[in-house]
UniProtKB/TrEMBL annotation, chain A:
Region annotation Disordered: where it falls in the sequence: 1-37
Organism: Streptomyces aidingensis
Example GO biological process: amino acid transport
GO CC terms in record: ATP-binding cassette (ABC) transporter complex
Entry's localization field: Cell membrane
Protein's name in the database: Polar amino acid transport system permease protein
UniProtKB/TrEMBL annotation, chain B:
Reaction(s) this enzyme catalyzes, per UniProt: a polar amino acid(out) + ATP + H2O = a polar amino acid(in) + ADP + phosphate + H(+)
Record carries keyword Membrane: no
Residue ranges of every copy of the ABC transporter domain listed in the record: 6-250
Identification of the protein by name: ABC-type polar-amino-acid transporter
Length: 342, 254
């Protein structure tokens, strides 16, 4: 630990001297007359006027202008904004949003767990397991998720009775819109998660498995304790992407009468004829949900990056703070070498 | 003396058409430091990996502590061992890799505790105590909570040695343990190995450190092209090699 601290100033120093306009001219270069004599270079941090980025200011002005035009256009459009405001927190809409959140969480959970299992099966030495996994991925990735939703929802047409030996029920009662949506979305997701997990598992160095085996760990333990935790670093970012995708894909479940956000909006607009207004309400909600998830994903990635690097990049909050202070303070060196994770 | 720790008879190993080992015969006695030297591609690392069944041998027989590695023999028939039996056999054989292979998502102490807790079922508190003790022994008492990425190569390799020792092995395999290190870090790893040798650990060391081999080694085998070219006491082989091939090799590395 101590020697890490000792090394700390090194990159800082390098950045400082690199940022300045050639602070120390090489001694052997013949010494241009303007160059300071050797030994007279001040040892403190370089204070230089940073490069001015006029292009950035101009482009910002252009973007703001275009944005103003867009806002103006929407203000003049035939949209009843008070209706948007009114329905933004309507009970049906909030309920729909919660249902969207719920089905997303449930089907992602199903997708991730099953996906990891499928990936491990696919990479297994057992040919039966790997071909089962291959066939699963082939089918669920090869058919549209909307078709799969209808397949599950209409399962009663071919299996009128749900019978698993100890439990028997009418299929129409078992296959509620929620159940059909969960199976349709979750099982489809598992196929994609399987491929993502497989890539993650393959990204882990073979030496890790060998080291674990050499210590006497079994294959399953090696996978669970050594390989998967390291694979997570590769698996998490695309999974976050899948999560956000699922939030939006879950809107397809409106077709099988699952009471999610989009269906809630449609129900209201078919009653009030405020079509565009309800679409805006629904979009706002989707944006809120995806934004919250993006933030969660960011911190999850940081967690799984532990031990992979000396220091993590600053969080957005830390970065904003550094940016704001950098306008006032010339030297930005602080923000770059902020923290060390221990 | 009693049963040798490792006995190899006509060990062959091929990867497809490539014959890497072509009949290795040797014995490693208990408590000795056995050095394997030779040019790269001579099969010394492969042979080491066969000893704990990371590689399966193609022909011949290999015993560790009197038991066949990876197989059971009933009458004249050989049966492949199940995964669990192989794992059980490996428990008693520690291995240190050229590239350390520490678990990067665990701290130093977690790396050392992992196998005792997961494989032997040692309670966490006790495993941790032991791990700290081992890390202190390799001179890393102050790096317990550091992640591998925060350690130098020499420190990582010492953690790797502590990790192997945590399973109380009766045999330690070292696969070029200092080859990936900066020259100034080699010494700290060799010191730990020297100390281990003095404590009577049976060690098989694949190495290019001829100084270490001469000073600490009890036996030395020079391999080339998948066969043992010359074997004997390190001092004899290194100072007065009998084979032309050995002489040529040594003249380049010494």
């Amino acid at each position: 630990m101590s020697d890490i601290r000792d090394q700390e100033p090194e990159p800082g120093k390098a950045a400082k001297s690199g940022a300045g306009p050639g602070p120390v001219p090489p001694v052997s270069a013949g010494g241009p007359p303007a160059g300071p004599p050797v030994g007279k270079v001040p040892p403190e941090a370089v204070k230089a006027i940073p490069v001015r980025h006029y292009g950035r200011w101009i482009s910002a002005a252009v973007v703001l202008f275009l944005l103003a035009l867009l806002v103006q256009a929407f203000r003049n459009a035939d949209i009843a904004w008070e209706v948007v405001g009114e329905y933004l927190d309507a009970e049906t809409v909030v309920e729909g949003a919660l249902n969207t959140l719920w089905i997303t969480l449930c089907s992602m959970l199903l997708g991730v767990v099953l996906g990891v299992v499928l990936a491990v099966m696919r990479l297994s030495a057992n040919p039966v397991l790997s071909s089962v996994s291959y066939a699963y991925i082939w089918f669920f990735r090869g058919t549209p998720v909307l078709v799969q939703l209808f397949l599950w929802f209409n399962l009663a047409l071919i299996f009128p009775v749900f019978d698993i030996g100890f439990y028997e029920a009418d299929m129409n009662e078992v296959m509620t819109p929620f159940m059909a949506a969960l199976l349709g979305l979750g099982l489809n997701e598992a196929a994609y998660m399987a491929e993502i997990s497989r890539a993650g598992i393959l990204s882990v160095d073979r030496g890790q498995t060998e080291a674990a085996h050499a210590l006497g760990m079994s294959g399953a333990k090696t996978m669970r304790r050594i390989v998967l935790p390291q694979a997570m670093r590769v698996i998490v970012p695309p999974t976050g992407n899948e999560f956000i995708n699922m939030l939006k894909t879950s809107s397809l479940a409106y077709a099988i009468q699952y009471q999610e956000l989009f269906l809630a909006g449609r129900n209201i607009s078919s009653r009030t004829l405020a079509v565009m207004e309800m679409l805006i309400v629904v979009s706002v909600w989707y944006l809120v949900l995806t934004t919250v998830f993006s933030i969660g994903q960011y911190y999850l990635e940081r967690y799984f990056a532990r031990g992979s690097d000396h220091r993590l990049p600053p969080t957005p909050l830390q970065r904003i703070r550094a940016q704001l202070t950098s306008f006032r303070v010339r030297s930005k060196v602080r923000g770059a070498s902020g923290e060390v994770t221990v | 003396m009693s049963e040798p720790m490792v006995r190899a008879e006509q060990v062959h190993k091929s990867f497809g058409p490539v014959k890497v080992l072509r009949g290795i015969d040797l014995e490693v006695r208990r408590g000795e430091v056995f050095c394997l030297v030779g040019p790269s591609g001579s099969g010394k690392s492969t042979f080491l990996r066969c000893i704990n069944h990371l590689e399966q041998i193609s022909a011949g027989r290999l015993w560790v502590d009197g038991r066949l590695v990876g197989y059971r023999q009933k009458g004249r028939k050989l049966y492949e061992m199940k995964e669990r039996e192989v794992a059980a056999q490996r428990r008693d054989i520690g291995m240190v890799f050229q590239r350390f292979n520490l678990f990067p998502h665990m701290t130093a102490v977690e790396n050392v505790m992992e196998a005792p807790v997961q494989v032997k079922g040692v309670p966490r508190a006790r495993a941790r105590e032991r791990a700290v003790e081992l890390l202190e022994r390799v001179g890393l008492g102050d790096k317990i909570r550091a992640y591998p990425a925060q350690l130098s190569g020499g420190q990582q390799q010492r953690v790797a040695i502590a990790r192997a020792l945590a399973m109380d092995p009766k045999l330690m395999l070292f696969d070029e343990p200092t080859s990936a290190l900066d020259p100034e870090l080699v010494g700290e790893v060799l010191d730990v190995m020297r100390q281990l040798a003095e404590e009577g650990m049976t060690m098989i060391v694949v190495t290019h450190e001829m100084g270490f081999a001469r000073e600490v080694g009890d036996s030395l085998v020079f391999m080339d092209g998948g066969v043992v070219v010359e074997a004997g006491h390190p001092r004899e082989v290194l100072t007065d090699p009998r084979h032309e091939r050995t002489r040529a090799f040594l003249s380049k590395v010494l």
